[in-house]
């Protein structure tokens, strides 16, 4: 097996436990990997503003450290310098809203660390419960949305059973026009077509001169599927959804509550 040079790590359900914390065991393993020259890359649907002091906690806040945020929509150095960016247009927002709103799905539009929330048929977004570090602004309609900002992605966040019921009603063309996937049981994400975690990793690897065979990607949810398939070594968490486990090269025997990331890092990178 080719030696791993880059570790791509999802957050929710992977690196984070249910308390949104990184276990001391995971911190130790990642710091050791980083000290050995491994690029430890947070690869998340979140913006950097929604991960708190994680980069400082892991010692990844240097100019030669990188993160992939917005599900691959933004590739950046951890000092803030952007390497690649892909966002939605206002026309995209209108088209997505026209599909989600009639289904009673609230629309959250993310612009960097600000979320513009549009309720639908009395349903208000639950996104603030999932990402409390972001700034939330409730607006009545798209007409109230600022025009001079970047539209990174749209999410719709509501009760899991209700969300799954509504997802089943999405028209087939919607998935043809956009990348549509769940990142948690209560969160459906909509990205520009062709934007997903694998494309962010591909762009970063080109920048770093690395081959996909030198990448290990670890995740648990639908939005991790593309990077787990793309990486030389795709690792699914024991708590991962069935579709991710089916495509992964390996599945940890420990969950995110049990520092499953440490298990994978120790075995495949630190060779313990």
Keywords:
single chain; 272 residues; alpha/beta; Rossmann fold; Hypothetical Protein, Haloacid Dehalogenase-like Hydrolase, Chain: A, domain 2; eight-stranded mixed sheet; six-stranded mixed sheet; 11 helices
CATH H-level superfamily of the largest domain:
HAD superfamily/HAD-like
Q: For the terminal residues, how far apart are their CA atoms? A: 16 Å
Number of helices: 11
**Radius of gyration, in angstroms, nearest whole number:** 18 Å
Shape: globular
Order of helices and strands: EHHEHEEEHEEHEEHHEEHEHEHEH
How are the strands of the biggest sheet laid out side by side? 5-4-3-2-1-12-13-14
| Helix fraction by DSSP (H/I, runs of at least 4) | 25-40%
Low-confidence stretches: none
Per CATH, the architecture of the largest domain is 3-Layer(aba) Sandwich
* Integer count of domains: 2
Report the CATH C-level class of the largest domain.
Answer: Alpha Beta
Instruction: Report the β-strand fraction as a percent range.
Output: 15-25%
Quaternary: single chain
**Averaging pLDDT over every residue, what do you get?**
96
Overview of this protein structure:
This protein has helices spanning 11-15, 24-35, 54-58, 90-100, 127-130, 160-167, 172-177, 197-208, 225-230, 242-247, 260-268, and strands spanning 6-9, 39-43, 66-69, 74-77, 82-85, 107-111, 114-118, 135-138, 153-157, 178-184, 187-192, 215-219, 233-236, 250-251. The protein has 272 residues and is of the alpha/beta class. The protein has 2 domains: 6-85 and 195-268, 3-Layer(aba) Sandwich (Rossmann fold), CATH 3.40.50; 90-192, Hypothetical Protein, Haloacid Dehalogenase-like Hydrolase, Chain: A, domain 2, CATH 3.30.1240.10. The protein has an 8-stranded mixed beta sheet. It has a 6-stranded mixed beta sheet with strand order 8-7-6-9-11-10. Helix 2 runs parallel beside helix 11.
